[in-house]
Amino acid sequence: MTTQLGGPATRALPAPEKKVAPEPRDRSLASQIIKITLLGLVVAIAIWASFPLIENKAWIGLALLAATTAALLYLYLTPRHIPAKYLAPGTLLLIVFQVFPVLYTASTAFTNYGDGHRGTKQEAVVAIQTASVTQVPGSIEYALSVATTGDPATGPLVFLITDPATRAVSAGDAGGLRKLDPADVTVTSAGKVTAADGYTVLTFGQASLRSKEITALAVPVDGGAIRSSGLSRAYEGKAGRVYDAGCDCVRDTTTGKTWTADGKVGAFVGEGGDRLAQGWKVSVGFSNFTRVVTDPDISGPFLRTLVWNFVFAIGSTGGTFVLGMLVAVSLHSKRVRGRNLYRVLLVLPYAMPAFAMLLVWRDMFNKDFGLINTFFGTDVDWLGQPATARIAVLLVQLWLGYPYMFLVTTGALQAIPAELSEASRIDGAGAWQSFRRIVLPLLMVALTPLLISSFAFNFNNFNAIYLTTEGGPFAPDNPANGATDLLITYTYRLAFGGSGAQYGYAAAISIFIFLIVGTISAIAFRRTRQQEEVYA
Amino acid sequence: MRIRAAGVAGALTLALLAAGCGGKSDDKGTAATDPSAKAATGELVIWADDKRAAALKPFADKFGTENGVTVKIQAISKDQQTTFVTASQQGSGPDVMVGAHDWIGNLVQNGAIDPVQLSDQQKSGIAGNALKAVTFNGQTYGVPYATENLALIRNTDLAPDSPATIEDLVATGQKLISQKKASEILCLQVGQTGDAYHLYPLYSSAGGYLFGTTANGDYDPKDLGVGTPASVNAFKKIAALGEKGNKTLKRSITSDNSISTFTGKKCAFLVSGPWAITDVKKAGIKYDITPVPPFAGGKPAQPFLGVQTFYVAAKGKNKALAQEFVTNYVTTPDLAVALYQAEPRPPALTAAFDQVKGTDPDLAKWQEAGKNAIPLPAIPEMAAIWDPFGKAEAAVVGGADPAKTIEAAGKTISGSINK
Q: What PANTHER family does the database record attribute to this sequence (chain A) (predicted)?
């Protein structure tokens, strides 16, 4: 009976695109203007994007940008390549928002990118040296005026420093320090030099434009160098740690201890194995992946988490679908009065921000102050016990998700011709049989892809768990893995909870999750296609 | 037609481009890369959270006009630390960052901040424990402007006398419950995943610690106090206060409802910080602020000291100006007073503190409550503590075996520190 049913009307396919006549002369003025505006925007965006690329000397990126823009202009200014005109925007967006992030994630997975390993080795060296500059004990704190012997904007910089005790003024630059004749300088009561013969004293405004040079200027003196601290004070500082390119190591200037650069871990490592905090980003090969596979913290509770992850995804999707469908079917009957009112009321949960609702539900499940225990007079520690916590998150999911299923089922139901059910009734089928044999199979053809995507979404539904139970409750002896943890919340904790953000590790984990979800979806879609072949 | 279309598109491009460029130079003000505009002044960019950004604005403007520079304040409403680190790395970060002192370890390992050089006179004007909090590896990494610590806030209508010990507090609380004047003994947020920050005063009073200290007073990540016999004993005392004990600590009291439960007069005692006072005042509750009481015969209850700090960004474009602002301007009391008025936390500058303490009797009480406070550890390893420690707390409060739980937490923490 079912094999003869179906047809294009029951399939949720987009309407075929109207063919646009290829002759440009037939186009209306409006479409011309739209086209010109859009192409103008494309070029404008390209030029806007090229400036930072040029500034950062990203020539490959610039070449890509130029090639893409030229290709787009060619494509839309020529009457040929009609199919490509339709495909280009989607393909571009796919590359920018899907392919590129995936490739970027994959490439990050092979590095140690994360807190303490964000920049280059050069940046780490600069950070280590700057962080080690300390004031020489007992040295003088000078009042500083920044001056120049030439033009305020470009002339060579000089530090005019005043010893607060003796009020003696010296001029210092990279060549060293020399005393100035007190008769040649005007000094304020605070010790700042306001004028000096042969020098132009810079105002804060002028000096602030030459910030980099001022910060970089160190006037060498015995035992250290005089550096600026802001624009009005100078101190005698000494770098406690210096980088030595000869041994590729960092040396402590007082103790002589060295930390040698280790390109494998991206850090300076001392003899005892201790590392300097400032490291750099290096490629670590497959070690993030092997860590995922071999880490007992992951492999131990992995199976349990995976099983619950499936239960959660299937339970959320299945539960919302069954409830949504039941409501949709019962409201589909024309005998129900006030159908539209019911429909509006039912869609309400869907219209509220899930983010806020999850937090509200969390509070409603509170043992002592929550609405649920107060209302039912129970004393259940909902989120404190594994079983009830799992039921609670599934209930929240059910409430949040069924309006969506109700909506899509209502839509699909209205697309099924009523004649089909009527015909089956005439053939002697009961209401249940008619639903089971006619309506449901046709519904499933339209809804299965949505159910699969809903499953994939719920499989990684981070917010649903993180905003309600945070993965808890946790067994007393295992704070790393909780009863309602999904793979995504669990691995988030591993990658970001312990020792700061570990993006490389997180990327490796997300690739594993991607593989799991991808495999399930692929199998499911394959089965749907077979189903469509049967029913369509 | 096609050629004309191309021509029009080209012209439009130029027009859009011109508009774009115009907008750009407006945005960046005088500090744009355009050399003709460069003649004017340098620019200082400061990032702070919403509240402080608003309070900083007039002072930033003043600093700007006094010194002939442009100062821009940008409010970062969420995830300030991560945003700052990421933006710094990309070269789009600020010159000055305002944030909590316990970021220092992470900011230093990411090379995001520079040490500041303060004169001895400036250092002597800052509260000693606040200065200690911003000292990391022997360097001063920022200028503190306000401190915060937990205290016991008491509803004086329900409990006129301040409890000398936790045991006193429990006795008073139980009496109030039996008289039906309250429903909870103590409002101390625990939640399903625990809260190490709020538990710490009790944990320290019971003899526990997180990290030991090295000879020079820095925290030593190699000496982990979680999982040691001392921590087990501390958690045994905490378990006695838990849901299977006298129910002083409950997982159902969370960060969301602890203050509202107190203002709803369902508990006479609240352990919280200066941020709770606005709500308490709004609810019209008569209150007093006293130090968190210790266990009878225990060590003093030490809250954590948090210090709000101005940092000089290492990758800022105008470091000299940033240093000038942070070391010579933030250290003046006016700014600290304005920031206090934006959000009432005790100023870290002694001069500013003295200036406002007359108008706000709470300040001296907060300071008294923070007398024993220890700076929140700023070492990066602290990140490994929060989550497992909090969960161990929640489990023990829920009735789990203290020894087994805290030892497991210690194992997890040392595992992720050594990774």
A: MALTOSE/MALTODEXTRIN TRANSPORT SYSTEM PERMEASE PROTEIN MALF, MALTOSE_MALTODEXTRIN TRANSPORT SYSTEM PERMEASE PROTEIN MALF
What is the number of domains present in chain B?
2
How far is residue B339's CA from residue B56's CA, in Å, rounded to a whole number?
Answer: 7
A41 neighbourhood in chain B, CB within 8 Å: 16
**Burial status of residue A25 (CB atoms within 10 A of its CB: 0-12, 13-18, 19 or more):** exposed
Q: Tens of pLDDT along A466-493?
A: 999 888 888 888 887 889 999 889 888 8
- Residues of the domain holding B369: 40-147+306-375
Tokens of B386: 């929060």
Which chain B residue shows the shortest CA-CA distance from A43? B13
Same domain, B297 and B311: no
Convert the pLDDT of each residue in A367-398 to its tens digit: 888 899 988 988 888 988 899 999 999 999 99
B66 is a domain residue: yes
Interface test with B, best of A241, A278, A477, A492 (most B CBs within 10 A): A477
Residue B323 lies in a domain: yes
Question: Is the domain covering A133-239 a CATH 3.90.1070 domain?
Answer: no
- Domain with residue B319: its CATH number is 3.40.190.10
A399/chain B closest Cα distance in angstroms: 22
pLDDT in tens, A15-48: 444 444 444 555 688 888 998 899 999 999 999 9
Tell me the per-residue pLDDT of A337-369, one tens digit each, with 9 for 90 and over: 888 888 888 888 788 888 888 999 999 999 888
Residue A116 and residue B409: Cβ atoms within 8 Å?
no
Name the superfamily (CATH) of residues A291-535. MetI-like (1.10.3720.10)
Q: Do B46 and B329 meet the contact criterion of CB atoms below 8 Å apart?
A: no
User: Rounded to an integer, what distance in angstroms lies between the CA atom of residue A469 and that of residue A485?
Assistant: 9
Do the chains contact at B321 and A215, CB–CB below 8 Å? no
Q: Which residues of A touch B41 (CB under 8 A)?
A: 205, 208-209
Strand (E) or helix (H) holding A306: helix A296-332
* Residue B12: inside a domain: no
Distance from CA of B347 to the nearest CA of A (A): 23
Judged by DSSP in three states, B90 sits in helix
Considering the entire predicted model, what is its pTM? 0.81
Q: Which residue has the tokens 């000494």?
A: A238
**Do residues B124 and B248 share a domain?**
no
Q: One-letter amino acid identity for B118?
A: L
> The tokens of A306 are what?
């995976």
Contact assignment for B193 to A237 by CB distance below 8 Å: no
Facing residue for A204 by CB, picked from B67, B85, B257 = B67
Same domain, B173 and B209: yes
Domain ranges of chain A: 133-239, 291-535
